[in-house]
TrEMBL record:
Residues 1-115 form the Response regulatory domain. SUPFAM superfamilies: CheY-like (SSF52172), HD-domain/PDEase-like (SSF109604). This is Chemotaxis protein CheY. CDD domains: HDc, REC_hyHK_CKI1_RcsC-like. The modification 4-aspartylphosphate is found at D50. InterPro entries: CheY-like_superfamily, Cyclic_di-GMP/3'3'-cGAMP_PDE, HD/PDEase_dom, HD_GYP_dom, Sig_transdc_resp-reg_receiver. It holds the Pfam family HD_5. One of its GO terms (biological process) is phosphorelay signal transduction system. Residues 149-342 form the HD-GYP domain.
């Protein structure tokens, strides 16, 4: 384990606690020193790093570790609680955060949870690295690569699906259902076959950005605080940042969906309070599918509602939260959509 903290007393206090709990700890007081330790000793299973440090801050350190293909589980440790700082850390490649002042019981719980989910964190780091590589290739290089390995795009897409579903089994079922419902709405609304097919492939990635949301927030059984909800809402932007600038039509559409599936017809959604025709049709369609499935499915914070209740909720908010034309298309497929839940 690598502990990066510029305050000597804080670093020693945490290091003693970790040693007492059986962890071997390497200590560094800034990002540069941490990278030197990694060069000599290799990547640790876990990195705990402060954000504000001299010479090299924590976010820069995280970026450099991810550039080196580090699959380490990375925690940021900071007194900051603003969503922007958390978003920057998540986009850099952090997996979770630890708030100051330090709660040692919470550290034990987070480490235990993270190490149990080591495979998830390894897959997450690998996928984000290969996504970055794909975005850096020129169009000519992508074409050449496809000639040599035509299955690359499909394999990569499957890995991204797996990443977005990795938190729990319910997330896996949710992404499948949202993709199926979105396809049915698209066909019923008269979308071209090619656009419908792209939407079917793209829709399951709508919540990809949740890989950047802390488990303590994502899996919280109770109501989120306003600060926690702001952090949760940032999953739209995180998903967009991961998927944008791709040469793939599927990932381009998925980026738009990730960013806009929580926008609402009357402008009450997030992150940009878009309304009506300002919202791309793929975001409008997935917004209906995602909301319906959320209503009729069990979540950590609520029990599932009956299908009939879900249909009534969508109907009641047509023209308020959702496009009236797309709600009509949704209801034309009511029987087929109901079969998905049988």
């Amino acid at each position: 384990m690598l502990l990066v903290e510029n305050d000597f007393s804080t670093r020693k206090m945490i290091s003693l606690f970790l040693n007492h709990n059986g962890y071997e700890v390497f200590e560094a007081e800034n990002g540069e020193e941490a990278l030197n330790i990694v060069e000599v000793n290799g990547f640790p299973e876990v990195v705990i790093t402060d954000i504000e440090m001299p010479l090299m801050d924590g976010i820069t350190l995280i970026k450099k570790l991810r550039e080196k293909k580090a699959s380490s589980i990375i925690f940021t440790m900071t007194a900051y609680s603003d969503p922007e700082t958390m978003k920057d850390a998540a986009l850099a490649g952090a997996d979770d955060f630890i708030s100051k002042p330090i709660d040692f019981k919470l550290i034990s719980m987070l480490l235990d949870m993270a190490l149990k989910a080591k495979e998830f964190h390894t897959e997450k780091a690998k996928t984000e690295y290969y996504l970055k590589l794909e975005n850096e290739y020129s169009g000519e290089a992508i074409a050449e690569l496809k000639d040599r390995n035509k299955t690359l795009a499909n394999d990569l897409l499957k890995k991204i699906y797996r990443l977005s579903e990795y938190r729990d089994d319910e997330t896996h079922e949710h992404t499948l259902r949202v993709g199926l419902i979105s396809e049915k709405i698209a066909r019923s609304s008269g979308l071209e076959n090619e656009e419908t097919y792209l939407l079917k492939l793209s829709a399951p990635l709508h919540d990809l950005g949740k890989v950047g949301i802390a488990d303590a927030i994502l899996l919280k059984p109770g109501k989120l605080t306003s600060t926690e909800f702001d952090m949760m809402k940032s999953h739209t932007v995180i998903g967009y940042e991961i998927l944008k600038d791709s040469t793939s039509d599927v990932l381009k559409m998925a980026a738009n969906i990730a960013l806009t599936h929580h926008e609402r017809w009357n402008g009450s959604g997030y992150p940009n309070a878009l309304k009506s025709s300002e919202i791309p049709i793929e975001g409008l369609i997935v917004g209906i599918a995602d909301s319906f499935d959320a209503i009729v499915s069990e979540r950590p914070y609520k029990k599932a509602k009956p299908l009939g209740y879900g249909f009534e909720e969508i109907k009641a908010t047509s023209g308020i939260l959702y496009s009236p034309l797309l709600v009509d298309a949704f209801f034309k497929e009511k029987e087929e959509i109901s079969k998905i839940y049988q």
